[in-house]
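User: You have something folded?
Assistant:
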Amino acid sequence: MPRDDASQKITARQVLSHSTGLPNWRRPGRDLKSHFAPGERFSYSGEGYVYLSKVIEKITGEGLEQYMKSAVFAPLDMKDSSLIWQDAFESRMASGHDGIGTPFPIMKGRDPNAAASLLTTAGDFGRFIAAAVGGRCSQRGRDTALSDAQRCGSAPQRRSRPGEGPPAVWC
């Protein structure tokens, strides 16, 4: 994370709304630094999502893939979604093509990346959107993902207590 005053004020809501001030991606070997004050304006930031995933991992004590499975994918019955490559995806994977029709190679990432590695199906994505709009993203069905994200404030928090099931989807 950048070592500047602006970065200390970044909230989960700003990450989710791409208003952190962080770049989309920094150049290899360069320090991460804010380009404007958090909340000041929109600027797409993959770096922000990676930062938020590290915060989630620290707070929950789980790796990102495991957290997403327990907090999002399993409660919403998203059996065909993952942040890392699954061999079961091979036969169903679509690939982009270049201008003359040559398929691009399929990326088979083994490291989860909150900004870039989600693999899902139209059905699973539809379940997520329906849950977000219909208000059943949290385990108990009380909150929508959008209102959860707006309430997060400075960092995602594990809202459930031990034995109460997985935490709400976003914070």
Remarks:
- The helical segments are 12-16, 46-60, 64-73, 122-134, 145-151.
- Residues 15 and 48 are 5 Å apart (CA to CA).
